[in-house]
Protein: NAD(P)-dependent dehydrogenase (Short-subunit alcohol dehydrogenase family)
Amino acid sequence: MTTKTWFITGTSSGFGRELAEQLLARGDRVAATARNTAALADLAAEYGDRLWRAALDVTDTAALRTVVDRAFAELGKIDVVVSNAGYGLFGAAEELSDEQIDRQIATNLTGSIQLARAVIPHLRAQGGGRIVQIASVGGQVAFPAMSLYHATKWGIEGFWESAAGDIAPFDIDVTLVEPGVARTAFGGPSADMGTPMPEYAEGWPGQLRRTLAGELPPLPAPGDPAKIAAAIIASTDLERAPKRLTLGSDAYELATTALRDRLTALEAQRDLAYSTDADDFVAEQ
Structure:
C-alpha cells in the first residue's frame, strides 16, 4: 500500500484526532491543524517529522490560506484533505445569541468552504487529489433545538453537490461523510448552548438541554469513532471516491426514512407541479 500525505483540520479531538492516530500508525504522513497544537504533543513525540503541525482557527480565513499554502510548500504533494473542524450548537433559534450564530456558521460552513477554496488550486496544480468533508446525517435530516447546526450541515451538502462537479475534471474527488451519533465529546456537558427561555423549557430545547446536562438519560450513541475513522481511511483507498459515506446504523435508518418520506411527499405533488407550467411549454414525458 502506497503511503499518503493528509491535511486534516480539527485534530485535537474527535474524528480528527482518531484519523491522525490511525494514519500515523499505518505509516502515512499527516499535516494536522488545531486551535491548540499542544494537544498533539504526544503524537509529535512518537512520530517525529511524519506529523506536521500548525495552529489554525478555520474562522480566520487569512490564516487558513497561509497555513494551507505553507503545508503544500513544505510537504509537496498532499493526497487527501479532510475538512473536519466543526462543533454543535444547541437551542431554539431565538435562544441563540448573534455571536453564537455567527461563530457556528463561520466554523462549520464558511470555514469548510474557505478551506476548499484554499486547497483546490494546489490539488489542481498537482494533478488531482481527494477532499473528504466531515458532514453529518444532520445534513439529510433535522431535529428541533439544532436549527443552526443543521443549517450549516445542509449548507455544506449543497455546496459540495455543486462544487464537486466543478473540480471533477481536474481529478479531484469529493466524499461527504455523514456519521450518526458517535461516542465523541460532541454534545457533552461542555456543549455550546443558547440561553434558556422559559417558553421552551418543556419542549424539545428544554429536554435536549437536560439530556446534555445529564439530568435525563443520554441519547443513544452507536457510532464507534475508531471504526468511523477506519471507514473514512478505507474509502480513500478506493479507486473511485464514494460521493457519500453514511456511517452508523442510526445514520442509515434516519437518512433512509427521511429520503423515502421526502420522495413520497414530492410524488404526491406531481400533478400540482406540472399544472403550474406555462401553457406554451410542453415538458418531456
